Amino acid sequence: MAKREIYDVCVIGSGPAGGVLSKELAEAGAKVILIEAGRKMLPEDFHFHAWPYELPKRTKPQPFYPREVTEAIRYEDSDSIGVDRIRAVGGRSIHWNAVCLRFAERDFRERSLAGAEEDWPLTYPELAPDYDYVEKMIGVSGSREGLDIVPDGDYLPPLKFRCSEEIVARACARMGVRMIPVRKALLTVPYDGRPPCHYCGHCMEGCDVGAIFTVPNSMIPKAEKTGNFTLLPNHLAREILADREGRARAVSVVNTETKQEEQIRARIVAVSCASIESARLLLNSRSPQHPNGLANSNDVVGRYLAGHVTAGVEAYLEDLAGTPPVNNDGATDHSYIPRFNLDGKPRDFAGGYHFQVQFSSFMYPYQARHVPGFGKKFKEQVRFLQPGFFQMGGFGKVLGRPENRVTVDRSRPDAYGIPIPVIHFRFGANDRALWKEMRDKGREIVEAARSRLILPPDSEPSGFASHETGTVRMGSDPRTSVLNSYGQAHEVKNLFVVDGSTFTTFPEKNPTLTIMALAVRAARYIANERRIGNL
What we know:
This protein has helices at 16-27, 67-70, 110-114, 124-138, 163-174, 215-225, 274-284, 375-385, 429-448, 512-531; strands at 2-12, 32-35, 74-75, 180-181, 229-232, 235-242, 248-255, 261-271, 306-317, 335-337, 353-357, 389-396, 405-413, 419-424, 451-454, 462-469, 495-497. The chain is α/β, with parallel strands linked by helices. The protein has one domain (2-43, 66-531): FAD/NAD(P)-binding domain. The strands form three sheets. Strands 1, 2, 5, 6, 7, 8 and 17 form a seven-stranded mixed beta sheet that branches. Strands 4, 9, 10, 11, 12, 15 and 16 form a seven-stranded antiparallel beta sheet that branches. Helix 1 runs parallel beside helix 10 (512-531) and helix 4 packs across helix 10. The two termini are 26 Å apart.
């Protein structure tokens, strides 16, 4: 059954990319429908501020990751990675850590500067105005540091360091490493009708007051205000339908509550489902005009899957162990260690890594699994160490390679009859060499800060920390890419992809700020192309 109305733009996926794109296009005058497979989340879905002992099975339920999604995937010939496939209005923005980092100018020029991968089809100066726009739109706290590797933006007042971060910052300084205030889409002062952070330490479990930017608290209300916007939750995109000329004409969707199917017709279709689901949707959108999947005659859709290789370090600082406990939950991480391996020293890998600091909850005694003994003395030692807790997470660059990819299994459908995604991923030699240095450097930092206990490090690399990218990548050459620099498909002019899947390469930095900047860039391009009659 097809809806009679023909929308100007149908956006699929309501995360940061789809939310920003929808709001920008609606404000530009386009009639926009935003399709989301998940439902609107309610406050009671999050269990804000609940202690583990207050919850069934001592863990918080996550209704935005239903079993019909988590079980409808397969990892085949794959290393230890996990991908994020959330289903909820707002996508990952509803419970993210909100770190917002600009890519450096060099991050867009990997081939030219490091001889690795490809150059992006756009440059940092081209995207810088969109970074500016997004930071002002969502509210980002931070500090201007004058570092080329993390370009400055227009920030709200930064978060202050905790005592543990002051101690480690001094150790970093002795090593010639910078630790700076983190840059987060988290308010430290009232902004845009939203209140500031109250430092509860539950950022990644959902912000109950709206101090952290989310699509539901910031983008959807502004889109609705235009009168040009329709939100359609609980509708899963099955495939994008093509007309005789091979252009996108409609989106076939399944109502996840009734299992009924219908078609959403639109002049332009924009896919914003994140790297795994965007590739899956295009691969499942087969037709006589596109027998290998929509916009995939070159067999690039699904390839070049990348994400961060990760390595954490957890330690207990000598200077704080045994001190009276205090509430220092804060806003999860307050500090950040930017990439520092651009020192001219020869290395056997390309790329870099950074450390995000103290984003693990202080509610959990990680040392309890490693302190020997039992009974009273065991408990005393666990309590003694807890005030000294210090944690860092290392996030490193992974090279995009064509054999790392997403495919679909047409013999195994999900609960709605749609072929499931299959993940094929192996870390390469470059990734493993980078991971080893990152792991060892993290331990070196906490040793320099005098740690009473350092928990055992990982013995093998893992990833992706919800930072997967690259499966529908942009590029200048239609033979080796799917999209142009505006996210427009080379083969299907009224099809756009706007999310992390479009990245040509992926540095060590968190992807979401760049995803939103690219969404703004795409929205302005679409609006202009509509105005002059090209779309």
